[in-house]
Design goal:
By secondary structure, the chain is mainly beta. The protein has 4 helices and 37 strands. It has a 22-stranded antiparallel beta barrel. It has a 4-stranded mixed β-sheet with strand order 4-3-8-7, with no helix packed on it. A hairpin with a 4-residue loop joins strand 19 and strand 20. The longest helix is centred in the C-terminal third of the chain and has 7 residues.
């Protein structure tokens, strides 16, 4: 039910962990991903999505409402900007134009109620709306510890109104929004209490909303313009209370209230010059109001600001132009340029993109692509505070430029039969201008964005480097005669470099990924019995290296910068099994399903921490064996 987790079956895509759906593409940080909904970039579309990240535990996006999912993993076209690793371009479907329908569903993602249909019979205008509320609290009460010691509470709503007109074009109004809240109560130990150490209460929540209006108008059969206006907001709040376990005295140790409010307008013109050539060009302007505030206690009642921004106004301007030309019946070329400019510090980027496709026959296709891509930094990075010796505050990251990446890709696709294909792709990415600390250290934004809280680091400079390269194999059989499978394998390297000399492994350098997804549907009359199986085997997670002796001496974890991310967990292994039954009646249909997640109950490491009491490094583990039930009725 989660588009992000579904994308993790594709070649080159790594799971950051069971607890989060971060999309790690070819070793790039998940913060390098661009989310788009109906053509407009949107904030992090996940419940409990931390500021500066693109993932979270539960998606607000609903697979039941999506019509198209275009997933780009590098060297993507010129129309996409402000992204380094990839693009997830989603289209929400329109409601049923013939009949009114209602759907009720109970499953892992929540209690859902949806309705859709035409505004009037025989008309072309339609509506679609879906509301969902969390059921994880119920599952937690049944004794299955999937919530990590806390019960997540969340709700979200999605809608789309489609209004075609006879002479004024087509109008589409759509929206997505969600609320989430969770409370971790302190425990005497760290077991199953992800990143919440003993002696601390943690309350965290987030809010996200986006509203868009699209208008498409055809001047002729060869020329159309698409104009879009959108508004969105994202807020994250956290409070961590420190508790004296001897006296039960409690005070606020850390707090944050970070929010962004965005207003954007975009227009794209597309024209077909001939059967062989068409071009498009567009411009987008994004106005951002950034309010950031978070602080940490140095000692009781003495707080240090980490990030501060009071209604800072920023303007990001993007433009692109690209042309597609059929050189011959066998060869297609695409070329374009993307431009973006951030007024905060006057940073800008001109980015050429080009691709070539050669299809000597319907069976074999060769592709070659190159692109220069850039991305502004997560906004909280710009407003991170520094302190002078006299205690005064300064902001040292404001003038950071954009991170940039040269990306090359070469692929070959072979349609072995009508329903069976194989694809092999090799790629190389060279990243530069990555923010790193101005003094030699192992910190780099190349490792940023895959956790519930992002580090606030000051005194950054655009002098870091990165390189990702590898080869990917895909074997896919499309659903036919009730059977399908998808097999992907990836071998890759992901390295980064700071002001220090050596190249290091990034946090996401797992070196290999294998995914197997397969299923079979048996049709009995109008009913379907389904069985689906998914297995993942991938390189283990990498962790900052803990210096045990220094940690014993100081009483808190001390990390060794020399061996950063050399420590790693055992390879990740997980198998999920799904059994389903769909029954179709004259006026309604029903579906029952059960998912056996982590069928073998394999213990995969989620994180490691230094246990002060024992003076040893211990681990938290990812999800254990968990059955998940689903029931859906459509009428």
């Amino acid at each position: 039910g989660d588009p992000a987790r579904m994308a993790q079956n594709y070649a080159g895509v790594l799971m950051a962990g069971d607890q989060r759906n971060d999309i790690v593409i070819r070793g790039n940080a998940p913060s390098g991903l661009l989310w788009r909904l109906d053509g407009l970039p949107i904030p992090n579309p996940n419940h409990f999505g931390a500021a500066g990240s693109t993932g979270g535990p539960v998606s607000m996006l609903n697979n039941n409402l999506l019509a198209r999912r275009d997933f780009y993993t590098g060297a993507f076209p010129a129309e996409f900007g402000n992204a380094i690793s990839g693009v997830f371009d989603l289209r929400m479907r329109s409601g049923n134009k013939q009949n009114r329908q209602t759907m009720f569903q109970v499953g892992f993602n929540g209690f859902e109620l949806g309705t859709e249909g035409p505004f009037k019979k025989g008309g072309q205008a339609s509506y679609l709306v879906n509301y969902r509320y969390s059921t994880l609290g119920v599952i937690d009460k049944l004794g299955f510890d999937i919530a990590g010691g806390a019960v997540p509470d969340y709700q979200d709503i999605s809608f789309k109104i489609d209004l075609p007109t006879e002479n004024a074009g087509r109008f589409q109004l759509y929206g997505l929004g969600g609320l989430s809240e969770i409370f971790y109560e302190q425990q005497d130990d760290n077991e199953n209490n992800y990143n919440n150490a003993a002696g601390f209460n943690t309350r965290n929540g987030s809010k996200m909303a986006t509203l868009g209006l699209n208008h498409t108008y055809f001047f002729s059969k060869n020329t159309r313009i698409r104009s879009q206006i959108g508004f969105s907001g994202h807020q994250v709040h956290t409070q961590i209370d420190s508790i004296n376990l001897d006296t039960d005295e409690m005070w606020i140790y850390y707090g944050e209230d970070n929010q962004e409010i965005n207003s954007q307008i975009k227009s794209t013109l597309k024209h077909r010059f001939s059967q062989k050539t068409y071009a498009e060009a567009g411009i987008r302007m994004l106005a951002i109001q950034a309010d950031y505030l978070d602080s940490v206690a140095i000692e009781k009642d003495n707080y240090k600001l980490l990030t501060e921004s009071n209604s800072e106004q920023l303007l990001l301007t993007e433009g692109f132009a690209q042309i597609n030309h059929f050189i011959s019946d066998e060869i297609t070329a695409t070329g374009g340029i993307h431009f973006q400019y951030l007024d905060l510090n006057k940073s800008k980027s001109f980015e050429p993109r080009v691709s070539l496709k050669w299809e000597p026959n319907p069976v074999h296709t060769f592709g070659l692509g190159y692109g220069l891509h850039s991305q502004i930094q997560p906004l909280l990075v710009y407003f991170t505070q520094s302190y002078e010796d006299d205690g005064s505050k300064i902001t040292t990251n404001t003038n950071l430029g954009m991170t940039k990446s040269h990306q090359f890709a070469l692929n070959y696709n072979w349609m072995i039969s009508e329903n069976f294909r194989t694809k092999i792709e090799t790629y190389y990415q060279y990243l530069y201008d990555i923010p790193v600390e101005s003094e030699a250290s192992s910190f780099s934004l190349a490792n940023y964005g895959a956790s519930f809280h992002q580090d606030r680091v000051d005194n950054l400079v655009n002098e870091g480097l990165g390189k990702n390269y590898g080869v990917e194999l895909t074997l896919e059989r499309y659903l036919n005669d009730g059977f399908y499978f998808l097999l992907t394998g990836t071998l890759y390297q992901s390295k980064y470099k700071t002001l220090e000399e050596p190249w290091r492994n990034t946090q996401f350098n797992g070196n290999f990924i294998t995914n197997v997804l397969t299923g079979y549907e048996l049709k009995i009359g109008k009913n379907l019995i389904g069985i689906d199986l998914r297995t993942v085997y991938a390189g283990g997670k990498r962790f900052p290296s803990i210096d045990i002796e220094a940690s014993k001496q100081w009483g808190y974890p001390v990390y060794d910068p020399v061996t950063a991310y050399e420590q790693r967990a055992d390879p990740y292994f997980r198998t999920d099994l799904r059994l389903s039954f769909k029954m179709s009646m004259k006026k309604f249909s029903q579906e029952w399903a059960i998912d056996f997640q982590n069928l073998t109950n394999h213990k995969n490491i989620y994180s490691q921490y230094f246990d002060v009491a024992s003076g040893t490094v211990k681990h938290n583990y990812q999800s254990s064996f968990t059955p998940m039930f689903l029931y859906r009725i459509n009428f």
